[in-house]
Known about the structure:
With 260 residues, the protein is mostly helical. It has helices at 23-26, 67-71, 78-89, 95-99, 106-130, 142-168, 176-186, 190-196, 202-228, 233-258; strands spanning 6-10, 27-31. The chain has a two-stranded antiparallel sheet with strand order 1-2. Helix 5 (106-130) packs parallel to helix 8 (190-196), helix 7 runs antiparallel to helix 9 (202-228) and helix 8 runs antiparallel to helix 9 (202-228). The N and C termini lie far apart (92 Å).
Amino acid sequence: MSNRGYDVVVDVDAEGDLGHTDLQEDLEFHSSTFDDNPSASKIPPNSSNPFSTSNSTLASKRYLWTLSFYAQFFDVDTSEVLRRCRVAVYPRSNFLDILDDNPDLYGPFWIATTVIFILFITGTISQYLAQRGVEHFAYDFTLLSGASGLIYGYTFVLPVALWGVLRWFGSEGANLLECWALYGYANLIWIPVALISWSPINILNWVFVAVGFAVSALFLVRNLWPLVNATDMRTSRVLLVVVVALHAGLAIAIKEFFFA
């Protein structure tokens, strides 16, 4: 009885006299309908939030206009970014497996930004060496704006178009964040290429750019193949040709615009 509650019903006569009440006849005991466990009546927290993490006690909503919405795409530590960079330069395993369903924008953003500034600096050095003997050398800041438009556009705009095409042709595994991560980390090879392609020897610069194109194109084709292969055979081949052709266009633009 100690584990259950009881309601007491008292039968009161017409005069309201309780003096002669017989507890055996007038008192009735009924089982209580109240539950002793207060937590049983509580509504469980919403677990359907697609942005909830396993280590959070309560699911939190993240809206597009809040910083927390974008912070989740940068939730990666330095050691993990470095590991992904190594895999991007030496593509011996599938990069999507390395991402482990946790693609980030931290690495792609800073890699692209680093490439932009190195292209501007080395492109300026290349122009200076080509104009030796001129009394006054003027910095060409169109190199900086051109590098920004070229690299940021290729890294963040082109993957959106690719993702849209893949979804249109039925590739259910296509993920926009993974496409951004693939193209972002593929840019890593352009950092050493830009650092050594400012020499006045034109054929040597072409060799450096060609090596950078080969490494990054191999990385993209190898990791995009599982996504592209989800479409029909003809479409997958056309998409791979377009991906390689656009990447070749990026390599040629880097060479001609910065190290001509």
